[in-house]
Design brief:
mainly beta
Amino acid sequence: MPRAPHFMPLLLLLLLLSLSHTQAAFPQDPLPLLISDLQGSSPLSWFRGLEDDAVAAELGLDFQRFLTLNRTLLVAARDHVFSFDLQAQEEGEGLVPNKYLTWRSQDVENCAVRGKLTDECYNYIRVLVPWDSQTLLACGTNSFSPVCRSYGITSLQQEGEELSGQARCPFDATQSNVAVFAEGSLYSATAADFQASDAVVYRSLGPQPPLRSAKYDSKWLREPHFVHALEHGDHVYFFFREVSVEDARLGRVQFSRVARVCKRDMGGSPRALDRHWTSFLKLRLNCSVPGDSTFYFDVLQALTGPVNLHGRSALFGVFTTQTNSIPGSAVCAFYLDEIERGFEGKFKEQRSLDGAWTPVSEDRVPSPRPGSCAGIGGAALSPSCPRSLPSSGPPPARPSRTAAVSTFKGSSPQPPSSRPRAGRSSGRLTAPSPRTSSLPDSQSLPWPLFASGLFIDCLSPCPRERSGR
């Protein structure tokens, strides 16, 4: 009978040592600031859908988007948008919408021909954003043929004609998307085709020309999952996670990103970046625990809107570990002004197809600096800005190379503290929820705690996708 190799116990010992070191390196869970088991709290209200909605009774309500305007809560779901007057609702009673709209798909037959399941061939309303103070933009998947409509905010009556939803709304309800209006234009990010192979950051419906990100270019976007979008200063920011291209040696790992575009961007010239962004930049969001070996929470799951933190605007995000890693979650905060400064860091470039991404020296960066907004900073002083593009930076001297280089930034904005604000070493959190009324006054809280009064709703484990998707 053959003997076992003598080196097997040594390998087993090394494996055990490696596992014990990995577990010890994982950050300890901080003590929670507030725990509530809901006993003795006010009874919760509920909403179970319309009485005559047989589809909701069979498949559930399938909420897609929530929007609060003053004291009105708008809820986008499958085939419906519900409006609730929050002042008129009584605690412990069933929620009753004071009005609602019904918008069913007219393309169910074609959806079935494409091989989709019955529960996919509905109109899942994935975009619900205020166009102005009187008008609401809603976009639905419409059985994998997305369309958009405008509605009166108070009446929920349709206004005007239907619009194409392509590049504004995903084809599939399970695909990610974000949208926000800024200075009269819609800035959206989603998949722009049926196969979900064309991820796009897109501007439309406004006084400025439509612009988009480069098509099928992994240096711009690589299988992104969009999480949040917001307007800040001269830019619109997009927060997402995507498969990394600068660390391909690690395999298919996801990194968290923030990208931005100038609101004044008018696109490139016919010779370079025609009808494409000339100001698109992105950098990595770093949520990690420092130490001898930095422990990263790489995967952005959710993000709050701006929250006042020590007199500065900050964003709180929920991050998790990679799906094939030790399950863990963390909450990191990022100051908006630090994110802005991150975009002033060094660029990265890849000089060969399989080469490493390395910093670009400042003497090789074109002037005006790629990503600059025209009329601001160096772009305002440069004599090379063409008169035909008064609201945009000029096309770079080497457009194809600079466009690829300027996409990546070498620096990453750091959380305002050296460690995540909260963590969990088992399971994965999925969403933060600001609840300022749940905690004491922010000035009374010590720095290691949630100084903005942020309360974390633990929604773990992550909900599974509907069957068949």
